[in-house]
Automatic annotation (TrEMBL):
Membrane topology note: Peripheral membrane protein
InterPro entries per record: AAA+_ATPase (IPR003593), ABC_transporter-like_ATP-bd (IPR003439), ABC_transporter-like_CS (IPR017871), ABC_transporter_ATP-binding (IPR050763), DrrA (IPR005894), DrrA1/2-like_C (IPR025302), P-loop_NTPase (IPR027417)
A single GO molecular function term of this UniProt record: ATP binding
Transport is among the record's keywords: yes
Assigned protein family: Belongs to the ABC transporter superfamily. Drug exporter-1 (DrugE1) (TC 3.A.1.105) family.
Protein name according to UniProt: Daunorubicin resistance protein DrrA family ABC transporter ATP-binding protein
Compartments, as annotated in UniProt: Cell membrane
Residue span(s) of domain ABC transporter: 5-235
Keyword list, A-Z: Antibiotic resistance, ATP-binding, Cell membrane, Membrane, Nucleotide-binding, Translocase, Transport
GO cellular component: plasma membrane
Family annotation (NCBIfam families): drrA (TIGR01188)
Length: 319
């Protein structure tokens, strides 16, 4: 099957600022593809080009089989999009918002009303359907915005940081909704700065920086790129830290990190390395208060690959 989304060599400049510098993407049908990157990395510019809101300065892209420039008009009826902020009319009710979108898609009055009611039920908004949106909570507005993106039942959905500003419960609920959509065959391109979100939802992830992809793979493949497993140890005596560093250095496959009484050691052989480490420290009479083996997080992948810290509450607009 051809990819649902394909981009080759996309370039976009704003004066002297290069927002995209040869962006390449390929997204299979019926999958979630995550774009990770710091603010200004080019994520939103990529989405705007793929949704026909911007024209690239160079390169080309197709979505659902349509060229995003030459076939822009036909493509728009095959995609849905939800941006960083809910694009709903506060003065209309939830039902009226969705019915208006249906009419914009030329579905007709009766089909628009029927589709609106279906989506309000699907997103647990039936009780609020006839209330003005200005009284909706942030989570309700987000669900309504996503429902609006689905009015035309598009095969491809673009979600640009869809859970920004949501509390953990509302975020988890939206994750479940996205998973249900993909289970029915929808293709989703998701931009996010929340590492947990990408780990939970994305089948494949592209790490983007300075306008191009710097790493690509599944979450596990990206984690493997920075060294596999981590042994984490907590000792009871600060004087033992030097012994830990000296005796466990042969096990480490990267930089050993120390924070107060806590030591992190990148290793390759997982459980065997942990067993060896504990045996070595016992022989050296080092008292270990706590020990564990874990995989690296996507936060660590992100920091290693981009040199940037992730933000807990992303608010700035991406380029």
């Amino acid at each position: 099957m051809p990819p649902a989304i394909m981009a080759e060599g996309l370039v976009k400049k704003y004066g002297d600022v290069i927002a995209l510098d040869g962006m390449n993407l390929s997204v299979p049908e019926g999958t979630v593809f995550g774009l990770l990157g710091p603010n200004g990395a080019g994520k939103t510019t990529t989405v705007r080009i793929l949704t026909t809101l911007l024209k690239p300065d160079a390169g080309h892209a197709t979505v659902a089989g349509f060229d995003v420039v030459a076939d822009a008009h036909r493509l728009r009826s095959h995609i849905g999009a939800s941006g960083q902020y809910a694009a709903v009319d506060d003065h209309l009710t939830g039902a009226e918002n969705l019915e208006m979108v249906g009419r914009l898609y030329h579905l007709g009055t009766k089909p628009s009303k029927q589709r609106a009611r279906e989506l309000l039920e699907r997103f647990d908004l039936t009780e609020a359907a006839d209330r003005p949106v200005q009284g909706y909570s942030g989570g309700m507005r987000r669900r309504l915005d996503l429902a609006a993106a689905l009015v035309a039942n598009p095969p491809v959905l673009f979600l640009d940081e869809p859970t920004t500003g949501l509390d953990p419960r509302a975020r988890a609920g939206l994750w479940d909704t996205i998973s249900e959509l993909v289970a029915t065959g929808t293709t989703v391109l998701l931009t996010t700065q929340y590492m947990e979100e990408a780990d939970r939802l994305a089948d494949r992830i592209a790490v983007v920086d300075h306008g191009h992809v710097i790493a690509l793979g599944t979450a596990d493949e990206l984690k493997d790129q920075i060294g596999g497993d981590r042994i984490e140890l907590t000792v009871t005596n600060p004087a033992d830290l030097e012994t830990v560093r000296r005796t466990l250095a042969p096990l480490a496959v990267g930089d050993m990190r120390t924070d107060a009484l806590h030591v992190t050691i990148p290793v390759t052989s997982g459980a065997a390395s942990l067993t060896s480490a504990l045996g070595t420290l016992a022989a050296e009479r080092v008292t270990v208060r706590d020990a564990s083996l874990r995989r690296p997080t996507l936060d660590e992948v992100f920091l290693t690959l981009t040199g940037h810290q992730t933000t807990d509450s992303p608010k700035e607009h991406d380029r």
